[in-house]
Amino acid sequence: MNSANKILKCNYMNLSDKFGKKIINKIVKEKIRPKSKWQFLLRDWVVWGAGILSLVIGSLSFAVILYLYKFNDWNLYLQITDSFAEFILLTLPYFWLLFVVIFIFILYYNIKHTKKGYRYPLPVVLAASVLLSIMLGSLFFKVGLGQAIDDVLGQKAPLYTQLFNRQLSYWSEPQKGRLSGIVISIITDTEFLLLDLEKNEWKIVNTSERRLLTDLIQIKRPIRLIGEIISEDIFEVERIMPVGPGREFFMRGGHMRMPSLKDIERMNNNTMDMEELKERIKEFSQRQKMIPEMIKNNPELNKQIKPLELESEIIGEMFGK
Amino acid sequence: MTETNHEEFFNLSEEEAFAKSDLSDGVENKVILSEREILAKSDVSDEAKIEVHPLNEEILAKSDEEIVKMALANQGNFIFIIKRYKEKLFNYIRRITNMDDEDAEDILQEVFIKVYLNLNDFDTSLKFSSWIYRIAHNQVISQHRKLKARPEGTALKLDDGAVKTIAADLDIKKDVDLKILRENIFGTMEKLDSKYKEILILKFFEEKSYQEISDIIKKPMGTVASLLNRAKEKFGNEFSKQNIKM
User: Fold this and answer.
1) What is residue A117's three-state secondary structure?
2) Which candidate from A6, A37, A118 shows the least CB-CB separation from B220?
3) Going residue by residue through chain B (246 aa), what tens digit of pLDDT does each one get?
């Protein structure tokens, strides 16, 4: 036992055991070491982390569903569709439901793959996953996360009206009496201009005795209308409602239409409200910053915008900017 | 100790090995060999350094969990885990696979290497035996297909008492000759789907509780119970068919 590095203190009986000796030898020769504890801890954390992440994403999706359904116009379903079932099918947020289902499944998978997850039966784990997502989703909805997500997607997400908020699509069927858009100009108490989702300009009129909710008719405000087309671009309104989900979609560049000179003239002639006119021009100047990007996206706009810019300069000089 | 043949090797229990060894005389149970002697007796390379706790009453009294801690502190002590479980796991592997000794031993070796590699993953809220059986179960599943088990028909070695117990547990008539009964049990088991066969083996041959089976095959207890019921039903049907044939 002179060389400390090469000393083998061993139990004779154990090493003479052929099978055990073979394994111990293999362990020693191949320098096999037990994997360290942190590797297993890391694996557990990844499983738990992925589970928690799935729960949060699923719950956020559920919060958006609640937000969409809160503004689903349950009382108007007969005006929108022929039956309640059709209304449900039409307004079902398929994308979000799919999202919730996918993330509930991922949550279920992660729970099952925790150390003791296998001990719980499938229905229990599934029910727990669904319940947790509903509870947390309701909480997220309560604190306004459903709306916040819809607002952000409304501003930026591609295919917003096809995927994330299909409600907007059926509010863009003027031939069926449903129209939505952003108020771009108020002509009189009973007339205003609306830019719809397709960027068509509508003159909205109210010829009935019924008073409209005039506080909803504000420039830049997105609204939904029920009524009917009375001529090519004139819509007779019966009812005005605010836009809930998707309101930010109308604020996108394409919908933030600059007032035309015709608007300004019309406003000037009809109302003679110079303060409002100044306000509009200020807005107009601010929106000019968006022009380069708009031209980049649609070079055709260049021709239409150029004269407007000149007019803007003249008007700016007139009102001292 | 002289080289034991294969049969002897697997028949030696930890206690028997202790009794057979030169260490049971209580005089000095730690044998320290010279470097040359060690290298001559083992295939361990000259860089190897193994320190093994002496096999004594103290070790025999230790729980699996304590032995795991010892093995983590010193790789040589892993021999005690091997000693404790080699026979049980060898029989278990042979029973569920019908492999010959050589193939089963290969799998068993892989099982112990995996056990050693994953020692830090052992969750003390489980029984160590359930954990090590789970590793064996998984190893069998992953290697069984590769090795293409050859039916040997000798894997299910049963004494008369065991045959009677199994017959009672599986509601089989006991008035049949024991030899025939044994053969029929073997024959019936071989005809069963592997998931039914394994659960019957765990319950009636390895004598595991529902909780242990649940931990080994990683299924909820309710699933274990219904799987076992279905397995018993299938076994009963198959056993009847075999009797009719006879």
Assistant:
1) helix
2) A118
3) 333 343 443 444 555 544 444 333 333 334 333 333 444 444 444 444 566 666 667 777 888 999 999 999 888 889 889 989 998 999 899 888 877 888 888 899 999 999 999 999 998 888 999 999 999 999 998 876 665 544 444 455 555 666 667 777 766 665 667 677 777 777 888 888 888 989 998 998 888 999 999 999 999 999 999 999 999 899 888 888 776 554
- Positive/negative CA dihedral, B137, B143, B145, B149: negative
DSSP A34: P
CB-facing half-sphere around the CA of A158: CA atoms within 13 A: 0
Handedness of CA A225, A229, A231, A232 (dihedral sign): positive
Residue A222 sits at the vertex; the CA angle it makes with A218 and A228, to the nearest 5 degrees, is 95
Q: Which of B9, B31, B223 sits opposite A11 (nearest CB)?
A: B31
Whether B78 and A23 lie within 8 Å, measured CB to CB: yes
**Chain B residues touching residue A126 (CB < 8 angstroms):** none
Tokens linked to A76: 């108007």
CA proximity to A246, closest of A59, A61, A56, A72? A72
Domains and CATH numbers, chain B: 6-147 (1.10.1740.10), 160-245 (1.10.10.10)
Q: Is the dihedral of CA A277, A282, A288, A294 positive or negative?
A: negative
Nearest CA in chain B to A35: B117
Chain B residue numbers touching A116 (CB-CB < 8 A): 125
Most B CBs within 10 Å, among A18, A24, A30, to test the B interface: A24
Tell me the pTM. 0.69
Contact A226, A177 (CB under 8 A): yes
CB proximity list for A33: less than 8 A, separation 6 or greater: B75
B residues 81-100 closer than 8 Å to A (CB): 82-83, 86
A9–B51 C-beta distance less than 8 A: yes
What is the helix (H) or strand (E) element at residue B139, kind and residue range? Answer: helix B128-147
Burial A201-235 (b: 16+ CB within 10 A, else e): ebbbbbeeeeebeeebbebeebbbbbbeeeeeeeb
- Residues A263-291 as b/e (b if ≥16 CB within 10 A, e otherwise) read bbebbeeeeeeeeebeebbeebeebbeeb
State which amino acid sits at residue B160.
Answer: D
Contacts of A119 in chain B (CB under 8 A): 214, 220-221
> Looking at chain B from residue 15 to 74, which residues have their Cβ under 8 Å from any Cβ of chain A?
17-18, 20-23, 29-35, 38, 41-55, 72
Domains with residue ranges and CATH for chain A:
38-156 (no CATH), 173-252 (2.40.50.140), 261-318 (no CATH)
* Strand boundaries in chain A, DSSP class E: 178-188, 191-196, 201-205, 222-231, 234-242
